[in-house]
Design brief:
alpha+beta, 2 domains, two-stranded antiparallel sheet, 8 helices, elongated
């Protein structure tokens, strides 16, 4: 099993509800304003002595909706940890770092210190590491006194991150590793769902937005939301999830032209890349168009993402461009749309599964799921 698989599979088990304690902590400490769609996002001033600029949310709203119980466990977010996460976000705001950077910063701090401002411990410490990001005076991050300040630490983290070419397009674990140069480079990925949810708690849903500066909006093809998710392709929705006419339809169909590039919706590892087509007990080639009399997904790919989420992409026209065990980034082209397997015309059949369950029992409606992560799929034809 690869490190990426291990990180995703061993991520903190999900809970069915957002704990009241965290919501109470966020409001009781007055760290943020939970705003609704279209209302300016602004953390309250005072954390670092500066006024936070406002952002207009162009995607989603501030309500914490969890229709499938997939939000990560936030019971460990004490008042101190919530405050430290808010400082990271506020410094990012003041530096005009897009929200994707806030998620990367919070995820990094979760891995390095569990969002705790660890003090200088002298000889007992790991290589003189200090604070939320375990930055080292001996490596030029700053003095011991400077690194005692979470705002200073956050600013130094973002300064280095912003120097990384195309950092917003990189998997979170890659971007974080290029800043931190950690001995455990694959450890950051497992914190991405909790980091995105924490950003949402403190900013009214900013992890569902794409872009930077003062304009935030939902992800389009080739764009990645702050949550790390994007859409696989753009097209008209022609068949929904488990409709009355098709109760066994465990995904949605998006009509596109033959040969349209299909992109992975989030960073992850390929766990299936194969042909699945048959007529009765006889196999059927995936290198030709299928039909309604053919069973199976045709050429298809399954990807395991952080948080034990699996996405499935069916009916590709040729063998997928990826292989089992390969790590992929969000937005990476994994194949071309087609009509192989059980298909009546060119389209992408797209599924989302939770709890690491790739069977029909783990399938959930992709439309609300993708809306929640800031990457709406399509409109009805």
């Amino acid at each position: 099993m690869t490190d990426a698989v291990t990180s995703a599979v061993t991520a903190r088990p999900v809970r069915r509800v957002v704990t009241r304690a965290v919501l109470a902590a966020a409001s009781a400490t007055m760290l943020c304003l939970l705003c609704l769609g279209g209302v300016a996002l602004s953390l309250l001033g005072g954390l670092t002595g500066e006024e936070a600029p406002g952002y207009t949310l162009g995607c989603g709203n501030g309500r914490l909706v969890d229709p499938y119980g997939i939000l990560p466990d936030v019971s460990g977010l004490t008042d101190e940890k919530v405050r430290n996460a808010a400082i990271i976000i506020k410094v990012g705001q003041n530096m005009k770092v897009p929200p994707r950077g806030w998620v990367i910063g919070v995820a990094t701090a979760l891995q390095e210190s569990n969002l705790t401002n660890l003090p200088h411990l002298g000889g007992r410490n790991d290589h003189d590491s200090i604070g939320l990001f375990q930055q080292r005076p001996s490596q030029g991050w700053g003095t011991v006194a400077q690194l005692a300040d979470p705002a200073y630490q956050s600013r130094k983290f973002f300064e280095k991150m912003l120097r990384i070419a195309d950092w917003q397009l990189l998997p979170l674990t890659v971007a974080a590793q290029r800043v931190q140069v950690s001995a455990y480079p694959n450890a950051y990925a497992k914190h991405e769902p909790l980091a995105a949810h924490t950003v949402d708690l403190l900013s009214g849903g900013a992890s569902r937005a794409v872009g930077g500066q003062l304009t935030l909006r939902c992800a389009a093809v080739g764009e990645i939301a702050a949550s790390g998710w994007t859409i696989p392709l753009h097209g008209a929705l022609t068949s929904g999830f488990r409709t009355a006419a098709r109760p066994g339809h465990n995904g949605v169909d998006i009509a596109v032209a033959m040969g349209t590039p299909v992109r992975t919706t989030a960073a992850g590892v390929i766990i299936v890349a194969m042909c699945n087509a048959h007529v009765g007990s006889q196999g059927f080639s995936c290198d030709r168009d299928g039909g309604v009399w053919v069973r199976g997904c045709g050429w298809y790919v399954d990807i395991l993402h952080a948080g034990n989420v699996i996405t499935r992409y069916c009916h590709m026209m040729t063998r997928p461009f990826v292989t089992v065990g390969q790590n992929v980034a969000a937005g990476e082209v994994i194949g071309l749309s087609g009509s192989s397997g059980n298909s009546s015309g060119p389209h992408l059949h797209f599924e989302v599964h939770i709890n690491g369950d790739s069977s029909r029992f783990g399938a959930v409606d992709p439309l609300p799921f993708m809306n929640q992560v800031g990457a709406p799929l399509a409109v009805a034809a």
